[in-house]
Amino acid sequence: MNGELAPKHHILAVLVENKFGVLTRVSGLFARRGFNIVSLAVSPTEDENYSRMTIVVDADSAPLEQVTKQLNKLIPVIKIQELSPDQAVERELMLVTVKSSSEVRSQITELAAIFEARIEDVGYDAITILVAGRPEKLDAMSDLLAPFGIVEIQRTGLIALPKLGRRPARLRAVKDQPS
Amino acid sequence: MKLTGAQALIKSLEMENTEVMFGLPGGAILPVYDPLIDSSIRHILVRHEQGAGHMAEGYAHATGRPGVAMVTSGPAATNIVTPLCDAYMDSIPLVVITGQVPYSVIGTDAFQECDTVGITMPITKHNWLITDAQDIPRVVREAFHVATTGRPGPVVVDVPKDIAMQEMDWYWPEAIDLPGYQPTTEGHPKQIKEAARLMGEAKRPIIYAGGGILKARAAAALRELAEMTGFPVVTTLMARGAFPDDHELCLGMPGMHGNYTAVTAMQESDLLIALGSRFDDRVTGKLDGFAPEAKIIHVDIDPAELGKVRRPDVALLGDCRLVIEEMIKAVRADQDKKSKKSGSRWPSIEKWRNHLRDYQERYPLVYEQFDDGPLKPQFCIDQLGALSPDDTIVASGVGQHQMWTSQRWTFNHPYTWINSGGLGTMGFAVPAAIGAKVGMPERTVWAVDGDGCFQMTAQELVTASAERIPVKIAILNNAYLGMVRQWQEMFYQERYSEVYLSPDLPDYVKWSEAMGCVGFRVDSPEDVGPTIEKANEIDDRPVVIDFRTDYREKVFPMVAAGTSNSDVIIDPDTERLRGK
Ligand SMILES: Cc1ncc(C[n+]2csc(CCOP(=O)(O)OP(=O)(O)O)c2C)c(N)n1
Ligand SMILES: [Mg+2]
Hints:
The structure holds 2 protein chains of 2 kinds. Chain A is of the alpha+beta class. Chain A has 4 helices and 10 strands, in the order βαββαββαββαβββ.
């Protein structure tokens, strides 16, 4: 169980038609129905006609059932899967630039090594690190880097796919009868 | 066959059996208006694009066919935003074609450019910006399909001018390929059985019929279900006429201005069978006080409605007509099973029915018309109903006049009541009545309008005169924004703020005559009947009657905003006037 994400968040894997305006339709729907998005990541799938969105929804802002049902009404939305954290592979990417004088550089690289992070760029007095993992790992990393002085941080938001070898946690399609 | 995008668009509309469209041309849509000259489609030239949208709605509601409107870009597209939102709220199938600046200049703030797709995204079921003339037949086919199937609603097709002038190879798509749009129509058999079981156990059942009954053309099925079960029926503002008002099982309209029996029957019910209704806040009152003991069976074609407001005990996703037909079979099976077992079918609900009959006697709708006193709006409506054909179509605006009409008119046929329920759009009545009359030319069409509402879209009577569409308008002229005045009187200590309109500015008779209509004015009760009879005889032009009504009259019963339906306020004179 992912202690950080649950139970306040839901992860939705949303398969959509890869057409212009689809992101606006989805984000507009969230805004006007009062559903809060924690993070959202979009990219084309292996089939270029479709894109996959991974949307992390604030569970306090709306009942999940309403979110998925309203999303399903959007015509370019093909399929919605709710991924419960224990049945999905979830990762997020973070790029972080920290102040790094020569005295502390080795401390930072050591930290990076513990987190299996990569040094992507080194400047005169700063260093940019790439780290991948579950969101709480990224949180921990940025907490530990904070004392050195964070210059800039960019996170991708969560992406997720169902774990293999079992059925998706819950499949909610238009045809599902609400219980 | 090579066609221009514009020709393909008109041909596609013909392929969809469009017989009439409402619109007004301009720069960006000019290329599409050219092939219209050679088309079989009747075009009705409106005076304001809002009129085109509401006419298309009135047409759609009266005929069951999608309403089609066409306007140009920019200000014309924004003018039709209100009808789009109105149709979205009331699930009315509309296909609206908007012109757009050339695709090549989109995004440059070109003359009359506006982001129509962006603006209408939240108030349409779907919308399309055409980027290639070759797509036009496919998109038009999809547009009609989306507008008319599942939960109906409005769609917009935005057509850039250069795309309309582009050449394409004509085709007509055989099939529709929308993988993300597959509405479920048939209910789940297990749930249907469960619904029948609950119905068989109910002691105080109420059928809560909503607009979905009309959308699904399920009025006959509803009647069969009600008659075989003996369950009383309430019809919401959107469902008036879906069940005949003169039927002994009909309790009439529930909600904020519903009658006492309908409101209270729902409150006391132990089983609400919601058929195509959506637990709108104007029906439920304060939600946590609504029908506290009722189990809920909820049938709707839109999965998002099931559980949106009130969690159902049995949720039935599907088309109302198909589901009710299956329910009828399941009820019959359940009744047969029980009668075999115990000799009697379902337990009698006669006690409940008697209880409700008692309410009906004790709490009728009341008003008092003195022979020499001011004209009562209720009296005008009653006379209008009594003197017009049984299948008259009635459209209304929004306000007191709307509530009185919905409360008092005896609707015995489906599709005879056309109003703006969800959005509450003042100005709806005149154009909606025109659209209904275009679709149903053999029927008498009355609009009961408010003086405030009338002033918002009256110019469409010019359209009606020019196009020889003989609608009839009854203005209940109380010289006020009456409904707002009522709230200020009751909830703002009679501090009247900006609600006075004047009875004779404008002069409604002269104004109507200037627009090519016959105009009448009625001040006294004895003139009401004869004037209505005169108006009913005119069928070569529109007629307007300016009824000067009593501005003090209020709509009762009333459930004040934010209060529970159990605290419904009845007319203080109910006791005195009962039986009069
Ligand atoms: C476009 C629009 N503006 C404002 C309102 C708010 N409103 C609701 S009823 C009403 C008064 C309507 O006045 P009138 O048409 O004279 O009808 P009456 O209530 O007097 O019968 C108003 C202003 C509305 N519903 N629609
Ligand atoms: Mg008025």
